[in-house]
Amino acid sequence: MNTDRSSLHLEGIPADKLITLQGYLEPFQLSLEKLQEVSHRLRRDMTRGLGKHSHHNAPVKMLPTFVRATPDGTEKGDFLALDLGGTHFRVLHVRVVEEEQKVLKMDSQICTIPKEMMLGPGQQLFDHIAACLGDFISSRNLKGQTLPLGFTFSFPCEQKEIDKSILIRWTKGFKCSGVEGEDVVKLLKEAIQRRGDYEIGTVAMVNDTVGTMMSCGYRDQSCEIGMIIGTGTNACYMEEMKNVKRVEGEDGRMCINTEWGGFGDDGSLKDIQTTFDVMVDEASVNPGVHIFEKMISGMYLGEIVRLLLVKLTEDNFLFSGQASETLLMPGSFETKFISEIEEEEHSLENVEHILTKLGLKWDEVDARVVRVCCDTISSRSARLCAAALAAITNRIRNNRKLDHLKTTVGVDGTVYKKHPNFSEELQATVRLLAPACHITFMVSEDGSGKGAAMVTAVAQRLARQSRLLEDSEGEDEEEEEEDENN
Where is the signal peptide (predicted)? Predict the structure, then answer.
């Protein structure tokens, strides 16, 4: 066995069984050299995704977000945030307090989107959103204030500006007509104008990874990476403008939404995909798409474990060769079971409880083998995530020609937050893969709400600074003219 976490829980498994088990688990156990190779491949794909012509066919999309800076600590004011990503959406009132370096959620309200509205005309959906926003503004006595709005819209969009975002396609059960190919900010503003009973200020479109980075960035100004590892996975980071070939301009930086879940969609991860990964991909709603996400994120980890346990049972290695009906059902082994099984304190009790729940007849050796399987698959997830994160931190360090990079990663997602060993293993592995980078990890609090407000606050600060600069340049020109005239 290698030195992954799985090797710590081998006692109680007979030696001959261990040797056989190793044969099944070996494809999941990636050496440091292999992880370095994976990291290198992602860096190459990131460059392709940033290219003016190569991005069309790049598996890692590297989408410009038009977020041009992280917080500098001087942001302040009241903001609205709108978070739409499923059958419910949230409206929030957020206050940014400069003196305390805090982003406070003053109040929020959840609104439901009826099923028929998810499939009806787009105008009806946006009228409903505008009505809920209006109710919130009215009930919180915010009428009369024209507050800026941060809009988290968690559907595939092509962002053209910070306040212009074109819906590429609906997902998550939505199919509203007249929205795909349209600017969602424009549709929202038109719905608010149709009501005519309140106004909003500037709008900033926010991806959830960017919200994660920005909600941490106010507390820690060195936060320049946002990472989500939950049901799905993604990351964003601050890239040098001169490398963002699809957007005009050479100066400064821009946040790039990597969409790293698509890494491997061109077959570049075939050598580390196990037969179980291939089965998970083939059975998914989008075969061949988001290969990396399917190897590491919460939506799929439980199913990878289930398929492995089914194979071990078929080969008469587990449960005396007797699978239960429940175990044979896709999705029956939930990802949260992995976290429960790996909790140190009640480890074997938890395994035994879960196996009984799945209708299996087990003995203690079976329980120990199941634990090692869970350990191995969650460990691979953490190590692959570390390889991807190392690709980003090493790229930032090289971009800036630094011997040593000190940076902070804002993180969100249930796999990172709930799994007992994931964060520790991710951090230990990234230190090995990016030894010249000192990385601090900060868990995001409400990135899609507070982060959306923060993006808006930063956009306002930059606009303010730009106006001041223009005014001072204008004054300088007037003075020069006066000098010439004199």
Answer: none
Pair of tokens at residue 271: 């050598």
Q: What is the average per-residue pLDDT within 337-360? A: 89
Q: Give the residue numbers annotated as catalytic, written as ranges.
A: 172, 208
| DSSP line for 28-75 | G---HHHHHHHHHHHHHHHHHHHSTTGGGG-SS--EE--------S--
Does 126 score more than 90 pLDDT?
Answer: yes
- Helix residue spans in 334-451 (DSSP H): 335-341, 347-357, 364-399, 414-418, 422-433
Of the chain, the percentage scoring pLDDT greater than 70 comes to 95
d(CA 362, CA 342): 18
Tokens of 141: 């006595």
Tokens of 30: 């990636």
Provide the domain count of the chain.
2
Enter the tokens of residue 480: 């020069």
CB 437 within 8 A of CB 253: no
User: Given pLDDT bands bounded at 50, 70 and 90, which one contains residue 62?
Assistant: very high
Residue 337: helix, strand or coil by DSSP? helix
Place of tokens 């007037």: 478
Give the pLDDT mean for 348-353. 90
What are the helix and strand counts (H, E) for the chain?
15, 13
The CA distance from 215 to 198, in Å, is: 27
pLDDT at residue 485, rounded to an integer = 62
Is the C-alpha dihedral spanning 173, 174, 177, 183 positive or negative? negative
Question: Which position has the token pair 């917080």?
Answer: 71
Asked whether 410 and 223 are in contact (CB, 8 A), the reply is: yes
Measure the CA–CA gap between 299 and 336, rounded to whole angstroms.
10
Amino acid identity of 159? Q
Q: Is residue 390 part of a domain?
A: yes
- Residue 477 domain flag: no
> What domain range includes position 108?
63-206+446-465
| Shared-domain flag, residues 16 and 158 | no
Q: Give the DSSP H or E segment for 87.
A: none
Question: Looking at this protein, which amino acid is placed at residue 357?
Answer: K
